[in-house]
Design goal:
Number of domains: 3
CATH topology of the largest domain: Tetrahydropterin Synthase, Chain A
Radius of gyration: 24 Å
Shape: elongated
Number of strands: 8
Structural class: alpha+beta
Strand content: 15-25%
Order of helices and strands: HHHEEHHHHEEEHHHEEHE
């Protein structure tokens, strides 16, 4: 029987995050070969994933990645808030986002099959993460955006955002990401992105309120209210969360940056 040292077990434990006992058993079975032991652990935990299929993955966190060419967000679910708060779980979520960005993916199943720059697939990441935490894991959704230059994930991991821009200014873009994460209502990047039906309904309501006024006054009233309505919903017209004297659009312009798009994920919120 191959003798396995405590140092070998600890080294494998540090690389995989699984229990010391499982690491030792895998090393024994692999005859002390660490690479073979890691493969054995992957197969072992991959086979156990299905045993938690009936569990509810109600917690989780947002993973994010940008490289100046593309940005990505991933919503990775788990069973408990305790696991979602673990730094290793956060690394896994971010690694999945990096795979999504690398291949420009928007399908969770495609992320599982694709491989990252290190050769590990999304499925490998899920399997290894399961080995560490023994909880059901689900990629709930994924999205990518061209020209992603900055991201922000709130400290609790429940909200994440990415900003895309034609002229990157990472510092200002990060501030805009934080603004996006803080906002309850953003219906589009600009006025053209807002649902025309919502605009028509808002205008109709405002015209009803202006009934009885002279036509020129009523028109100005509706225009003023509609501008305010847009400023509450359109990202580029919203006052910056940390300085309401400047809009997001003006803030970007002053930084020599044109915001071309954004992504926002909030755990469990599909909008």
């Amino acid at each position: 029987m191959t003798t396995i040292s405590a140092a070998q077990v600890k080294a494998l434990r540090d690389k995989t995050g699984v229990s010391m006992g499982d690491c030792k058993n895998a090393l024994v079975e692999a005859g002390g070969d660490e690479t073979k032991a890691m493969e054995l652990l992957k197969r072992k935990y991959a086979g156990k994933l299905d045993t938690r299929a009936d569990k509810e993955a109600a917690n989780g966190r947002i993973g994010a990645y940008v490289n100046g060419l593309i940005g990505a967000l991933v919503e990775l679910r788990c069973e408990t808030d305790f696991v979602s708060a673990n730094s290793e779980f956060a690394k896994s979520a971010n690694a999945l986002a990096a795979i999504a960005a690398q291949h420009r993916l928007s399908d969770p199943n495609a992320v599982l099959e694709a491989k990252g720059a290190d050769g590990h697939s999304g499925k490998d990441i899920i399997t290894e993460t399961y080995g560490k935490f023994q909880e059901k894991l689900v990629i709930a959704r994924v999205a990518t955006i061209e020209h992603g230059v900055a991201f922000y994930v709130h400290h609790n991991g429940k909200i994440g955002s990415v900003v895309a821009a034609s002229q990157p200014n990472p510092e200002v873009a990060k501030q805009i990401c934080m603004h996006i994460a803080a906002q309850q209502t953003i219906d589009g990047l600009n006025r053209e992105a807002v649902d025309p039906q919502a605009v028509a309904e808002a205008r109709s309501f405002m015209m009803e309120e202006a009934k009885g006024k002279p036509a020129n006054i009523a028109e100005k009233m509706v225009e003023g209210k509609l501008n305010k309505w847009y400023a509450e919903r359109v990202l580029l017209e919203q006052p910056f969360a940390l300085d309401d004297k400047i809009t997001i659009g003006q803030m970007a312009k002053d930084a020599g940056m044109t915001v071309t798009g954004y992504l926002k994920f909030e755990l469990g919120v599909k909008k």
